Amino acid sequence: MSPDFPTLQTPRLRLRELQPADAPAFFEIHRNADAMRWFGTDPLTELAEAEQVIEGFRTSREARQPGIRWGLQQLSDDQLLGSCGLFRWNRGWRSCGLGYELAPAAQGQGLMREALQAVLGWGFEHWALNRVEAQVHPANQASLGLLLRLGFQREGRMRQAGFWQGAHRDLLLFSLLREDWDAKLGARLAG
């Protein structure tokens, strides 16, 4: 593991650097066409593709507009449950995108909300973000609800902005501003 990778911990999760050894579990998540129907890419078909994606996450940290992707595992075991991260960090604009996915068996337990609270907090603090954007398929009710619970606001519909599984897809654009995050954090601390 990279010594400069920011490992995060929540009450139930460890957010850590994705490793080549995670490729089989990552592949199982990303090869599932039903699970990937909202993700924005076609399902993976070979283990080597998962290895390449993980390597791409590692190298994206050195890109001109870098990104960082955390692997999610419960504190009780080493099993990869999914990943989440910030990408396309525009230092000048102090903005980036947000992405995430979770294995079907781990969904519905509040794990991604817990992980994203840690990731967003890290981004606002360490990258001095002012804005985080997320793009979501209009029918992805679980993700839409998650973003709203985190304080994101819907900004509009991007017509046919995505293309995966053989079709153009509309996406909804959401954003979370630093002031929204600070207000939500203050409310959590007061409550």
TrEMBL record:
Domain N-acetyltransferase: 13-178
Gene3D superfamilies with a match to the protein in the record: 3.40.630.30
Protein's recorded name: GNAT family N-acetyltransferase
Natural source organism: Ideonella azotifigens
